[in-house]
Each structure stands twice: as structure tokens, then as C-alpha cells.
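@channel sequence for tomorrow's demo:
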Amino acid sequence: MRNIRARSKVKSKANTNSSPSIQKTPASNLNDFADIDTNYFEQELHNSKGDLAKTQKLIEEMKQYFEGLNMPHGHLNIGRSVRKNSSQINEAINHLLRIVSTYQAGKDMNIPNSNIHIDSNENSRQFIEETCRFEREMFNIHFSHCSTCHRRKINLHVNSNGVCSRCSKEKKGHNKFGHENSALPLWIDKDGNKHFELPKVLLDLQLAECLLIQQVSPFIPVIHIRNGSIGSRGHVVSFYQDITSVCTIFPRLPSEVTMVKVVRSSTTRNEDVIQKAFTVNKHRVLAALLWLKEHNSHYSHIKIDKTRFGWMQGRHECNLDNIIEIDSPVTEPEDNDR
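C-alpha cells (generated this afternoon):
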């Protein structure tokens, strides 16, 4: 059984005639039932105009589409009647549309591509039934998004306007967590669109790269959790210091930042991932600074000096060299289940 969860979009290209031709998205690229698109089949059915060869070819394409979704298609049979072929295609389209509407509405439904055969063995049958029941429950768990407070939560109840119950009870235009109340951090792109999510240029930064663009120097105990995952633990302390000169010219030099790295011997095969936290990529740092200068008022006055990358000696990526290393005897045993 193939679980379908992520997102992909159908793109259209201009054709030689006045109406654009809709390109069929391969079913293997679809990872969310809500993204199933039937426009291609509807248009091709309309263009067939009683042509037997075209309807037969379209049924074959429809069967391949169902196979890509790992869904049964026994009801699709190529016939010698244009009317029968068209009827089958219409029914298949409506079947897909019912799946999409039910899934988008967050209603409880069976997994459309569940095609597991129950084993006659009692133990196997019980295991498969329990697994299918679990898969069905997981399939019917949906993330909902409130268009007002921008909460994204599993099984969050929203109305037809995409507003959660908490925001819908508040007076319109006076929402506690609405944009009008300036309660949510946001940034606006060149086209005037509001964004409430972090931009990719900041999300991609490693720990050492964040140190080179920060304006304050907090003390944050960062630990290696497992398999290269980095986390923080304990209290966060911000030290008072004179930052009048430091906060005007970026990126900061390695001599202006300090990192204490507690080194412990690790026997995991992902030990190389741990080192990435201390890697500096010049292009990522520059992209982040340019974005901050344009969109963050606290960085609007900064001067970006590319010569401050001289310590990298022409390399585009290298490790931060101003790291205090402390050896630790603690070892991390290999986990065979990873």
C-alpha cells in the first residue's frame, strides 16, 4: 500500500490553438489524494468527439493513471463502442472527484488504494487487519489550517471559510491573533504578498552560519541528540556587551564568535552529519544577510562586507575554525534499528 501525503501541482502549457492544453501529471508524482487532477481526462474526453481510437487510448491512459495511484481499475475495459468508452471514462473521473472532495472535506473514508489481500492464516489475518485499521486511522488524520491565526494542527476544526472555531467567535477585524492586531510575525515580498513562514534562505542555515549573522550573543547549550540531530537544553542566557560596531558590518568574523564544542567519540554511521552544524557556506550566509537587510528593519542599516570571508581562503564552504573543543569520554552505542 502506497501512502499518499505530500503535494504536487499540475502545470499547463500553451498550445497552438486558443485554449491551453492541460498536461497530465504522472500519478507516481502525486503524494496527496487532494492533488488528483482530472482536468486532463475531461479535456481529452471532450476533444475525442466520438472518435473510437481516441476514447480507447484515453481508457488505456486512465488505467495507467489508476495503476500509478495503486488503485483497482477492473471497471475500465476498452470496448468497441464510443458511447460505452466515454461512459466508463466519465464514471472513472467522477470516482476520482468523489475521492478528492471527501478527502478535502476531512471526512472519514477508507483508503482508496488499499489492495491488501487477507491471508487465510489466523495469525497473519489478525496482524494484517490490525495494520489496516491503524493505516486507516492514520489516513484520516488531517492537518487543518486557519486562515486568520494561521494555526496548523491535526484535526483542527475550521468552517467553510477556513477559519477555526476560536477565531470565528471573535468580532471580524478584531481577531486576537489576526494580521490587523499585529500579533503574528510576517514578511512581505516584492509583490506585496504576506508570508507567515520562515524563508528558505534562513531555514537552510547551519548553526555556525547563524552565529555569523546574529546581532546578539546568547549562551545556548546545544547538544547532539542522535544521528546528527541538534537540540538545545537548559537555560538561555544573553550577555550584555558593546555591539555598536559588531552589529553594523556583516558577516561577523570567526574571532568575534565563540563556540564550545564538546567532542565525544561516536560509533554511529552518521557521524559526518554532526560536523555539518559547524560548517559555513559563504553563499548561504550572503543570501541570508541580503534577505535580512531587505525585509528586517533591525538589519536595514547593516553593511555587508564580502572581504570578511577572507578567512575561508577562497573556499565556498569550510568549518568554523574558532571552536573550543572539549573531549568527552561519553560514547554513543550503535542502534541497529536506525
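heads up for whoever presents: The two ends are 23 Å apart (CA to CA).
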